[in-house]
Amino acid sequence: MSAQDSGTAERRRQFAEEARSERPDLALLCLLLGAEAGPVGPEEPRPVDPAEVSPDPYGIDAAQIELDRLAGLLPYGPGKTPADWASALAELLGERHEFGGSSADYQRLESSLLQQVLRRRRGLPILLSVVWIEVARRAGAPVYGVALPGHFVVGFGDPAHPVLVDPFAGGAPLTGEDADLLVTGATGAHLEPSMLTPARPLEIVLRILNNIRAWATARPERTDVALWAVDLSLLLPSHPARLRYERAQLLVQRGEFQRGAAEMEEYAEVLDTIEPTTAETIRHQAQAARALLN
Fold first, then answer.
1. What ranges does the record give for the region Disordered, renumbered to this chain (predicted)?
2. Helix (H, G, I), strand (E, B) or coil at 57
3. In the chain, at which end, N or C, are there fewer CB atoms within 10 A of the end residue's CB?
4. Which residues of the chain carry a pLDDT beneath 50?
Protein backbone atom coordinates (compact mmCIF):
# COMPACT_ATOMS: atom_id res chain seq x y z
CA MET A 1 0.00 0.00 0.00
CA SER A 2 1.38 3.42 -0.97
CA ALA A 3 1.77 6.23 1.56
CA GLN A 4 -1.14 8.03 -0.09
CA ASP A 5 -3.42 4.97 0.13
CA SER A 6 -2.37 4.42 3.73
CA GLY A 7 -3.20 8.03 4.59
CA THR A 8 -6.59 7.76 2.93
CA ALA A 9 -7.37 4.54 4.81
CA GLU A 10 -6.42 6.13 8.14
CA ARG A 11 -8.54 9.24 7.52
CA ARG A 12 -11.52 7.10 6.57
CA ARG A 13 -11.07 4.99 9.69
CA GLN A 14 -11.07 8.19 11.73
CA PHE A 15 -14.14 9.47 9.84
CA ALA A 16 -16.07 6.25 10.51
CA GLU A 17 -15.03 6.24 14.17
CA GLU A 18 -16.05 9.87 14.68
CA ALA A 19 -19.37 9.34 12.88
CA ARG A 20 -20.20 6.54 15.32
CA SER A 21 -19.14 8.41 18.44
CA GLU A 22 -21.67 9.52 21.04
CA ARG A 23 -21.26 13.19 20.09
CA PRO A 24 -19.87 13.46 16.54
CA ASP A 25 -17.57 16.44 15.98
CA LEU A 26 -19.07 18.32 13.02
CA ALA A 27 -15.92 20.30 12.21
CA LEU A 28 -13.67 17.24 12.27
CA LEU A 29 -16.03 15.23 10.06
CA CYS A 30 -16.21 18.10 7.54
CA LEU A 31 -12.43 18.48 7.54
CA LEU A 32 -11.83 14.75 7.04
CA LEU A 33 -14.34 14.95 4.20
CA GLY A 34 -12.48 17.91 2.74
CA ALA A 35 -9.19 16.02 2.88
CA GLU A 36 -10.53 13.55 0.31
CA ALA A 37 -10.15 16.26 -2.35
CA GLY A 38 -6.41 16.52 -1.75
CA PRO A 39 -4.00 19.02 -0.19
CA VAL A 40 -5.15 22.57 0.49
CA GLY A 41 -3.53 25.20 -1.69
CA PRO A 42 -4.08 27.84 -4.33
CA GLU A 43 -4.26 25.25 -7.10
CA GLU A 44 -7.08 22.83 -7.83
CA PRO A 45 -6.80 20.07 -5.17
CA ARG A 46 -4.88 17.04 -6.39
CA PRO A 47 -3.74 13.89 -4.54
CA VAL A 48 -0.05 13.82 -3.62
CA ASP A 49 2.10 11.87 -1.24
CA PRO A 50 1.63 13.50 2.20
CA ALA A 51 5.32 12.84 2.91
CA GLU A 52 6.23 15.28 0.12
CA VAL A 53 4.38 18.24 1.55
CA SER A 54 3.82 19.97 4.88
CA PRO A 55 3.03 18.18 8.16
CA ASP A 56 -0.59 19.34 7.74
CA PRO A 57 -1.10 18.96 3.97
CA TYR A 58 -4.87 18.69 4.14
CA GLY A 59 -5.27 21.74 6.34
CA ILE A 60 -7.12 19.94 9.13
CA ASP A 61 -5.08 21.35 12.04
CA ALA A 62 -4.86 24.80 10.44
CA ALA A 63 -8.63 24.91 9.96
CA GLN A 64 -9.31 23.97 13.59
CA ILE A 65 -6.90 26.72 14.69
CA GLU A 66 -8.65 29.23 12.42
CA LEU A 67 -12.06 28.34 13.87
CA ASP A 68 -10.63 28.81 17.39
CA ARG A 69 -9.09 32.14 16.36
CA LEU A 70 -12.34 33.45 14.93
CA ALA A 71 -14.25 32.38 18.04
CA GLY A 72 -11.71 34.28 20.16
CA LEU A 73 -12.52 37.48 18.26
CA LEU A 74 -16.13 37.48 19.42
CA PRO A 75 -16.69 39.99 22.23
CA TYR A 76 -17.18 38.28 25.56
CA GLY A 77 -20.47 38.99 27.21
CA PRO A 78 -22.40 36.71 29.55
CA GLY A 79 -26.12 37.13 29.27
CA LYS A 80 -26.13 37.72 25.51
CA THR A 81 -29.54 37.14 23.94
CA PRO A 82 -29.86 34.99 20.80
CA ALA A 83 -30.29 38.20 18.80
CA ASP A 84 -27.06 39.56 20.33
CA TRP A 85 -25.18 36.43 19.26
CA ALA A 86 -26.62 36.61 15.76
CA SER A 87 -25.61 40.25 15.44
CA ALA A 88 -22.09 39.64 16.78
CA LEU A 89 -21.51 36.73 14.36
CA ALA A 90 -22.83 38.75 11.42
CA GLU A 91 -20.46 41.62 12.27
CA LEU A 92 -17.44 39.32 12.71
CA LEU A 93 -17.94 36.78 9.91
CA GLY A 94 -20.19 38.55 7.45
CA GLU A 95 -18.77 42.09 7.63
CA ARG A 96 -15.19 41.97 8.95
CA HIS A 97 -14.16 38.68 7.34
CA GLU A 98 -16.58 38.81 4.40
CA PHE A 99 -17.82 35.23 4.54
CA GLY A 100 -20.65 34.82 2.03
CA GLY A 101 -21.69 33.24 -1.23
CA SER A 102 -23.05 33.82 -4.71
CA SER A 103 -24.49 31.72 -7.53
CA ALA A 104 -20.96 31.15 -8.91
CA ASP A 105 -20.00 29.26 -5.76
CA TYR A 106 -22.41 26.46 -6.69
CA GLN A 107 -20.13 25.57 -9.61
CA ARG A 108 -17.02 24.97 -7.48
CA LEU A 109 -16.13 21.82 -5.58
CA GLU A 110 -14.19 23.96 -3.08
CA SER A 111 -17.50 25.47 -1.97
CA SER A 112 -18.29 22.15 -0.26
CA LEU A 113 -14.91 21.69 1.45
CA LEU A 114 -14.55 23.32 4.88
CA GLN A 115 -10.79 23.92 4.56
CA GLN A 116 -11.30 25.75 1.28
CA VAL A 117 -14.29 27.73 2.56
CA LEU A 118 -12.22 29.00 5.49
CA ARG A 119 -9.40 29.94 3.10
CA ARG A 120 -11.56 31.54 0.38
CA ARG A 121 -14.33 32.95 2.62
CA ARG A 122 -16.77 31.64 0.00
CA GLY A 123 -18.97 28.57 -0.05
CA LEU A 124 -22.38 26.97 -0.27
CA PRO A 125 -25.00 27.89 2.34
CA ILE A 126 -24.46 24.68 4.31
CA LEU A 127 -20.66 25.07 4.52
CA LEU A 128 -20.89 28.73 5.48
CA SER A 129 -23.41 27.65 8.12
CA VAL A 130 -20.89 25.09 9.43
CA VAL A 131 -18.38 27.93 9.88
CA TRP A 132 -20.96 29.96 11.79
CA ILE A 133 -22.00 27.00 13.92
CA GLU A 134 -18.45 26.03 14.83
CA VAL A 135 -17.28 29.56 15.59
CA ALA A 136 -20.39 30.35 17.62
CA ARG A 137 -20.30 27.01 19.46
CA ARG A 138 -16.71 27.59 20.53
CA ALA A 139 -17.73 30.97 21.93
CA GLY A 140 -20.61 29.45 23.93
CA ALA A 141 -23.54 30.57 21.80
CA PRO A 142 -26.83 28.58 21.67
CA VAL A 143 -26.44 27.81 17.97
CA TYR A 144 -27.57 25.10 15.57
CA GLY A 145 -28.06 24.43 11.89
CA VAL A 146 -31.50 24.59 10.27
CA ALA A 147 -31.87 22.44 7.16
CA LEU A 148 -34.57 24.32 5.27
CA PRO A 149 -35.42 22.65 1.96
CA GLY A 150 -33.06 24.04 -0.67
CA HIS A 151 -31.25 26.48 1.63
CA PHE A 152 -29.37 25.80 4.87
CA VAL A 153 -29.42 28.53 7.54
CA VAL A 154 -28.40 29.00 11.18
CA GLY A 155 -30.58 29.38 14.28
CA PHE A 156 -29.88 30.85 17.71
CA GLY A 157 -31.82 30.31 20.92
CA ASP A 158 -35.02 28.32 21.41
CA PRO A 159 -35.77 26.20 18.32
CA ALA A 160 -39.46 26.81 18.91
CA HIS A 161 -38.85 30.57 18.48
CA PRO A 162 -35.46 30.82 16.78
CA VAL A 163 -33.48 33.81 15.69
CA LEU A 164 -32.59 32.83 12.12
CA VAL A 165 -29.76 34.16 9.96
CA ASP A 166 -28.53 33.41 6.45
CA PRO A 167 -24.72 33.00 6.35
CA PHE A 168 -24.85 32.79 2.53
CA ALA A 169 -26.07 36.41 2.61
CA GLY A 170 -23.39 37.46 5.11
CA GLY A 171 -25.56 36.75 8.13
CA ALA A 172 -28.65 38.66 7.10
CA PRO A 173 -31.49 38.11 9.61
CA LEU A 174 -34.42 35.98 8.48
CA THR A 175 -37.94 36.62 9.69
CA GLY A 176 -40.50 33.84 9.67
CA GLU A 177 -41.87 35.32 6.45
CA ASP A 178 -38.39 35.30 4.89
CA ALA A 179 -37.91 31.64 5.79
CA ASP A 180 -41.33 30.81 4.39
CA LEU A 181 -40.41 32.50 1.09
CA LEU A 182 -37.19 30.45 0.91
CA VAL A 183 -39.10 27.21 1.45
CA THR A 184 -41.86 28.16 -0.98
CA GLY A 185 -39.29 29.05 -3.63
CA ALA A 186 -37.58 25.68 -3.24
CA THR A 187 -40.58 23.39 -2.84
CA GLY A 188 -43.76 25.28 -3.65
CA ALA A 189 -45.02 24.48 -0.14
CA HIS A 190 -45.06 26.63 2.98
CA LEU A 191 -42.72 26.51 5.98
CA GLU A 192 -43.68 23.87 8.54
CA PRO A 193 -42.55 24.06 12.20
CA SER A 194 -40.81 20.68 11.81
CA MET A 195 -38.45 22.29 9.27
CA LEU A 196 -36.96 24.39 12.06
CA THR A 197 -35.78 21.35 14.04
CA PRO A 198 -32.01 21.63 14.71
CA ALA A 199 -30.05 19.55 12.22
CA ARG A 200 -27.83 16.86 13.74
CA PRO A 201 -24.14 16.70 12.74
CA LEU A 202 -24.50 13.49 10.72
CA GLU A 203 -27.50 14.90 8.85
CA ILE A 204 -25.40 17.92 7.93
CA VAL A 205 -22.49 15.77 6.76
CA LEU A 206 -24.76 13.56 4.62
CA ARG A 207 -26.33 16.65 3.04
CA ILE A 208 -22.85 17.98 2.20
CA LEU A 209 -21.92 14.64 0.63
CA ASN A 210 -25.18 14.66 -1.35
CA ASN A 211 -24.24 18.11 -2.69
CA ILE A 212 -20.82 16.82 -3.74
CA ARG A 213 -22.36 13.81 -5.46
CA ALA A 214 -24.73 16.14 -7.33
CA TRP A 215 -21.77 18.33 -8.37
CA ALA A 216 -19.87 15.29 -9.67
CA THR A 217 -22.92 13.82 -11.43
CA ALA A 218 -23.09 16.96 -13.57
CA ARG A 219 -19.44 16.36 -14.52
CA PRO A 220 -19.05 12.80 -15.88
CA GLU A 221 -15.27 13.21 -15.94
CA ARG A 222 -15.23 13.52 -12.12
CA THR A 223 -16.22 9.98 -11.18
CA ASP A 224 -13.27 10.11 -8.77
CA VAL A 225 -15.08 12.73 -6.69
CA ALA A 226 -18.42 10.91 -6.95
CA LEU A 227 -16.77 7.69 -5.74
CA TRP A 228 -15.16 9.13 -2.61
CA ALA A 229 -18.37 10.99 -1.76
CA VAL A 230 -20.30 7.70 -1.97
CA ASP A 231 -17.61 5.87 0.01
CA LEU A 232 -17.82 8.39 2.87
CA SER A 233 -21.62 8.32 2.80
CA LEU A 234 -21.50 4.55 3.24
CA LEU A 235 -19.34 5.01 6.35
CA LEU A 236 -22.12 6.95 8.10
CA PRO A 237 -24.26 4.88 10.50
CA SER A 238 -27.41 5.81 8.58
CA HIS A 239 -27.42 6.18 4.79
CA PRO A 240 -29.63 5.25 1.81
CA ALA A 241 -29.12 1.59 0.90
CA ARG A 242 -29.22 2.48 -2.79
CA LEU A 243 -25.79 4.09 -2.41
CA ARG A 244 -24.32 0.59 -2.71
CA TYR A 245 -25.81 0.33 -6.19
CA GLU A 246 -24.59 3.81 -7.06
CA ARG A 247 -21.07 2.79 -6.01
CA ALA A 248 -21.22 -0.30 -8.22
CA GLN A 249 -22.29 1.82 -11.18
CA LEU A 250 -19.41 4.22 -10.60
CA LEU A 251 -16.92 1.37 -10.56
CA VAL A 252 -18.22 0.19 -13.94
CA GLN A 253 -18.01 3.73 -15.33
CA ARG A 254 -14.39 3.87 -14.19
CA GLY A 255 -13.57 0.61 -16.00
CA GLU A 256 -13.51 -1.61 -12.90
CA PHE A 257 -16.03 -3.99 -14.46
CA GLN A 258 -15.37 -7.03 -12.27
CA ARG A 259 -15.63 -5.14 -8.98
CA GLY A 260 -18.66 -3.20 -10.16
CA ALA A 261 -20.45 -6.36 -11.29
CA ALA A 262 -19.69 -8.10 -7.99
CA GLU A 263 -21.11 -5.19 -5.99
CA MET A 264 -24.22 -5.10 -8.18
CA GLU A 265 -24.82 -8.77 -7.45
CA GLU A 266 -24.37 -8.21 -3.71
CA TYR A 267 -26.92 -5.40 -3.82
CA ALA A 268 -29.32 -7.60 -5.85
CA GLU A 269 -29.19 -10.19 -3.04
CA VAL A 270 -30.30 -7.52 -0.57
CA LEU A 271 -33.25 -6.64 -2.83
CA ASP A 272 -34.34 -10.23 -3.53
CA THR A 273 -37.00 -10.40 -0.82
CA ILE A 274 -38.13 -6.77 -1.20
CA GLU A 275 -38.01 -5.96 -4.91
CA PRO A 276 -37.29 -9.19 -6.81
CA THR A 277 -37.96 -7.62 -10.22
CA THR A 278 -35.47 -4.84 -9.57
CA ALA A 279 -32.98 -7.38 -8.25
CA GLU A 280 -33.21 -9.37 -11.48
CA THR A 281 -32.71 -6.21 -13.55
CA ILE A 282 -29.55 -5.39 -11.58
CA ARG A 283 -28.24 -8.93 -12.12
CA HIS A 284 -28.62 -8.42 -15.87
CA GLN A 285 -26.65 -5.18 -15.53
CA ALA A 286 -23.92 -7.08 -13.69
CA GLN A 287 -23.74 -9.60 -16.53
CA ALA A 288 -23.48 -6.76 -19.05
CA ALA A 289 -20.64 -5.22 -17.03
CA ARG A 290 -18.73 -8.50 -17.02
CA ALA A 291 -19.24 -8.83 -20.79
CA LEU A 292 -17.27 -5.62 -21.21
CA LEU A 293 -14.19 -7.54 -20.04
CA ASN A 294 -14.22 -9.67 -23.20
1. 1-21
2. coil
3. C
4. 43-48, 50-51
